[in-house]
Design goal:
The protein is mostly beta strands. It is about 10% helix and about 40% strand.
């Protein structure tokens, strides 16, 4: 077995015996006790353990003299050569024995052959190597200014790692007039400092109090530690805002721009925080118009122009501004603001017609007063001075002196004629004396009233009209038209027929008095009257009325409404059979009441008879003569049909039948005559014969 193996074996055997010894042997107190101060140098001798234990120093090495227990990190070692116990590492009592009143390190020292266990205690005594300290260098305490004296505020206690007399022994507070210091025993061996309010605080006088708390230990000289205490005085709302001025008086031109700052109201509050924050509001009892013209910034106190500022509306505005802090409850003060408005020339002169009338009769004479004119200007001073009023040529301004002032009148300058101009628009102008000058204008319309100075006037002096004779009753023949240049009833025209006309005119025609329509009243007959001449009067409704007269000539147009007429003016009684050709049997005349072509008549014989018609030297006269010799034995009598036809459209016809007797010696003539209208002819065989008559029988066109 090697030496190393043998030693390990011996070590384990010793350890086993030591463990058994601990289990079965009662613990014993240290046999030897040493005392050393902390922080001694490494290598410092604690004591000669071997000597104090009575061990043979010469055998210590052989018996393996050593320390087998103690602190985790060996603070002590023994010298096997001389048995001395010495400090192996630096010893800090505060670190080694935290919280312990006594600080003792127990060591177990053994020697072998035979095995012995010895107990050694080393007491570490405290030295004043630490000063008191606070966990914070600075603390802040907030105390309301309304706290009553006697109020206590616990402070932070200082800590000192030293023990006993070297630990914190007392505290002191720097000199001040508001606070004192009070110490209370914690019951755990240290004292607790309290800050005591001795005198009432006033934040408005002093917002902060800086104090110094000093902790002292029992060293000589004593170690100290300090704590900076800042006492912040909390505000209470015990001060109301104060306006920087009792009255703010400013001037403002009336043309100030919207948004312009008029004045800034400033109020301060010596309180702190929300208690010292000031808000501004306009008073609640101002005139309604103030709120429309000015606005107030609640934070800055700026009063700005909100709406149009008009000197003429108000020259001075008096505002009450309430300045309130944000305390609970808030405190309020009133600030008075007087805003004087200065006038600028921003108003035009105003012209008004204040009396009389805006109408004038056209017969009014020059110099007639039409209206009283008033001129005003809201501006003050020279800004309101009126310098001129202008008009036109027909009217003028006549300024007349009254008891108090000069009064302008609008008067007629020269005569008027409503028919030339029925109204006049006058431009009245007034100019003030401001810079720049401003002018005001007014359009005044003067209406010229009518007088009945104009007669009605017909559109024609003479009206000529043609109308057929067969028009129905009620037919409008013509409308006469008359106008009157006057106005109103003076221009309203009524028509009437002249009073000196023939009676027949009134029977044939009637006149609408309002429209001027002339209507057919009776049945017209061209054959009775071909022309009617009417006098028509037009009268206005003026007082007195004025009348004018025109002539209406109505010519009747003929229509083919009359049948031709056959008249036998001379007739032989008998016709002898031996009468020679050309013997005149009868004289015949034809006529037609119609005129023109309607009265042109053609005459002829019907049938094959030995007679013919010979025109006479007079118009519409014929001779009925024999055309050849007669033979009674062949024909003893003849019915001779004489027809007449006019040239109207449509043509009208009549006929007559002559009965002629033929005798040998004495011939008797029997005349049978009758006349039938053309319409009757169309209902008989005679009618057919007439219709079949050739153009040679009725040569109307050739004769025309």
């Amino acid at each position: 077995m090697s030496i190393g193996q043998r030693r390990r074996w011996e070590y384990w055997c010793v350890a086993l015996r030591f463990s058994l010894l601990l289990c079965f042997v009662e613990q014993v107190s240290a046999q030897i006790r040493y005392s050393i101060p902390e922080e001694v140098k490494e290598g410092s001798v604690v004591g000669n353990v071997a000597k104090d234990l009575g061990l043979d120093v010469s055998t210590l090495l052989e018996r393996r003299f050593r320390i087998v227990s103690g602190s985790k990190d060996a603070l002590f070692q023994v010298n096997q050569n001389n048995g001395v116990l010495y400090v192996y590492k630096n010893i800090d009592r505060e670190e080694l024995c935290v919280g312990n009143v006594a600080c003792v390190i127990d060591l177990e020292i053994i020697v072998e052959n035979p095995l012995e266990v010895h107990y050694v205690g080393v007491e570490i005594t405290d030295i004043n190597d630490h000063t008191p300290s606070f966990s914070e260098k600075d603390i802040h305490i907030k105390i309301a200014e309304n706290k009553l004296p006697g109020a206590r505020f616990e402070l932070q206690a200082a800590r000192d790692l030293d023990y006993g007399i070297n630990s914190v022994r007392t505290y002191k507070l720097n000199q001040n007039e508001h606070f004192d210091l009070e110490l209370r025993d914690s019951g755990e061996g240290y004292k607790i400092p309290f800050l005591v309010l001795q005198k009432a605080l006033d934040r408005e006088l002093k917002t902060k109090h800086v104090l110094l708390l000093t902790a002292l230990d029992g060293g000589n000289p004593p170690g100290t530690g300090t704590l900076n205490i800042t006492v912040t005085v909390l505000d209470t709302n015990d001060n109301q805002p104060v306006c920087s001025q009792d009255v703010y008086s400013v001037t403002l031109q009336e043309n100030a721009d919207i948004g312009r700052i008029v004045v800034r109201v400033n109020a301060t509050d010596t309180d702190h925080g929300s208690n010292g924050e000031v808000e501004y509001t306009l008073g609640r009892n101002l005139k309604r118009g103030v709120y429309d013209i000015f606005e107030l910034d609640s934070l800055t106190g700026d009063i700005r122009v909100k709406g149009p500022v008009d000197f003429e509306d108000n020259e001075v505005y008096r505002l009450n501004i309430e300045a309130s802090d944000k305390g609970q409850p808030p405190l309020t003060v009133d600030c008075r603001v007087i805003i004087k408005i200065t006038d600028v020339n921003d108003n035009k002169p105003s012209i008004g017609v204040t009396s009389l009338s805006k109408t004038v009769s056209e017969v009014s004479k020059p110099g007639t007063v039409i209206s009283l004119i008033s001129v005003t200007d809201k501006d003050s001073g020279i800004n309101g001075k009126v310098l001129a009023i202008t008009s036109n040529d027909h009217f003028e301004i006549d300024v007349r002196q009254s008891d108090e002032d000069k009064i302008p009148f609008l008067v007629l300058k020269k005569s008027l004629d409503r028919e030339q101009n029925h109204n006049y628009t006058l431009l009245l102008t007034a100019i003030d004396g401001g810079i720049p000058q401003r002018s005001g204008t007014l359009n005044v319309t003067i209406v010229v009233l009518d007088s009945n100075d104009n007669r009605p006037v017909f559109s024609q002096d003479t009206y000529n009209v043609r109308i057929q004779e067969n028009v129905g009753v009620g037919t409008v023949v013509i409308r006469v038209n008359a106008t009157d240049a006057d106005e109103g009833s003076n221009s309203e025209v009524e028509f009437s027929l002249g009073k000196t006309l023939r009676r027949k005119v009134y029977d044939m025609f009637e006149l609408d008095r309002l429209t001027g329509d002339i209507r057919v009243k009776g049945e017209l007959d061209f054959e009775d009257t071909e022309v009617y001449k009417l006098d028509v009067q037009a009268s206005d409704k003026g007082q007195p009325p004025l009348t004018v007269e025109c002539r209406v000539i109505i010519k009747i147009i003929d229509i083919n409404d009359n049948e031709p007429d056959i008249e036998v003016t001379s007739l032989s009684n008998l016709v002898s059979e031996d009468s020679k050709p050309g013997t005149v049997i009868s004289l015949i005349s034809v006529s037609d009441k119609d005129s023109g072509i309607n009265g042109k008549v053609l005459c002829s014989l019907l049938g094959d008879v030995p007679f013919e018609l010979k025109p006479s030297f007079q118009d519409n006269m014929y001779s009925l003569v024999t055309k050849k010799r007669l033979d009674r034995e062949l024909v003893s009598h003849y019915d001779i049909t004489i027809t007449t036809t006019d040239c109207g459209q449509p043509p009208l016809s009549t006929f007559k039948i002559l009965n002629v007797q033929i005798s040998d010696e004495t011939v008797r003539y029997l005349l049978l005559e009758w006349a039938l209208p053309l319409s009757g002819l169309f209902c008989s065989t005679h009618t057919e014969r007439v219709v079949q008559t050739s153009e040679q029988d009725l040569p109307c066109q050739s004769r025309l």
